[in-house]
Specification:
This protein has about 325 residues and is an alpha/beta fold. The chain folds into two domains: about 230 residues, Aldolase class I (TIM Barrel), CATH 3.20.20.70; about 80 residues. The protein contains 14 helices and ten strands. Strand 7, helix 6 and strand 8 form a beta-alpha-beta unit. The radius of gyration is 20 Å and the shape is globular. It starts with a strand and ends in a 6-residue tail after the last helix.
Length: about 325
């Protein structure tokens, strides 16, 4: 069974992935938040530090792109390969309206012919490429995938990651595992399940229902509870172990941020994002997070973080 961390813009950065891997080493794969082409289809994303080998050499990292343009997809794959990354992921799942309107992300779910043209061009130029695809069920209806899976079946994609919601749902409402089951029955490629795996119990229920699915992706659940992937894989953490590991996780993240952003004002902006999800499991977590919205000096922050880790956070109901 393989477990991967879902890419979440601004949160699962190279710094976060690096610290998480060094502390827990529980994910088999990581994905970058997506790189996007500009209006001229040129290459403008900041490759570093997201693809900095110093931050990613120990992880199985797969760069992700969001595009409706085969030229950019090919260009990206070539640049990634030149940096040592042999795999690439096409995002067809981003639900945000701006992307959907541009026929990017989940917007490609309504454009089967465009998708076919993109993949044809891509594999004509890069027949040996290892391309995976992340999809939704559709934009508005949960059966729009029926126009997409036959096209994916015609190409040698390595994996289809399925978030069983429509773009219209974004991240709300129930995950439609019934449609996911239908996809697994007709997709010729390995399928990864993704969506609302927020506890070990959630995972065990899905694993029981889909015993032939050997790859799963979790995102927000693991950001809220960084011990979750380890627990899914069978580790039982004591409260003391959790306290020590979270302190190590925080300190590793803190040090790497300080190295890249020596000016505390800049570093503090990244520190805020680190705490956003873990504090969601804490009573009065929003109140604690509001404290971080106000600038605090480094020494004051370190005292605050110690209080969170030694007391408040470890009393959370993970």
């Amino acid at each position: 069974m393989k477990l991967s961390l879902a890419p979440i813009q601004s949160y699962t950065t190279a710094f976060y992935r690096y610290a998480h891997h060094l502390t827990f080493n529980t994910f088999d794969k990581y994905y970058t938040p997506f790189f996007e082409n500009n209006k001229q289809n040129g290459w403008l994303p900041a490759l570093l530090p997201e693809l900095d080998k110093k931050l990613n050499s120990q992880t199985n990292l797969i760069p992700q792109v969001i595009t409706n343009n085969s030229v950019f997809l090919i260009c990206s794959a070539e640049k990634f390969a030149g940096m040592g990354y042999t795999k690439i992921n096409l995002n067809m799942g981003c639900p945000f309206p701006m992307m959907v309107r541009r026929q990017k992300g989940a917007g490609l779910m309504a454009e089967p012919k465009l998708l076919e043209n993109i993949l044809t061009d891509f594999y004509d130029q890069m027949p040996e490429a290892k391309l995976s695809v992340k999809i939704r069920l559709g934009i508005n209806e949960p059966d729009e995938w029926k126009n997409i899976i036959p096209i994916l079946n015609d190409f040698p994609v390595t994996e289809v990651i399925v978030h069983p919601r429509t773009a219209k749902q974004k991240y709300d409402g129930k995950v439609n595992w019934t449609e996911f089951e239908k996809i697994t029955s007709v997709c010729k490629h390995p399928v990864t399940g993704n969506g609302d795996i927020n506890s070990k119990e959630d995972f065990l229920e899905l694993k029981s229902r889909f015993p032939d699915v050997f790859s799963w992706m979790t995102g927000r659940g693991a950001l809220i509870d960084p011990f979750l992937p380890g627990e899914i894989k069978g580790t039982n953490y004591s409260t003391q172990q959790k306290k020590e590991l979270f302190r190590m996780f925080h300190d590793t993240y803190f040090e790497i941020i300080k190295q890249h952003f020596p000016v505390w004002n800049h570093a503090f902006n990244h520190i805020r994002t680190f705490w956003y999800y873990p504090l969601q499991s804490v009573k009065n977590g929003q109140r604690h997070y509001k404290t971080l919205k106000k600038f605090m000096p480094e020494n004051e922050y370190l005292k605050w973080s110690m209080t969170m880790i030694n007391g408040t956070l470890m009393n959370a109901d993970h």
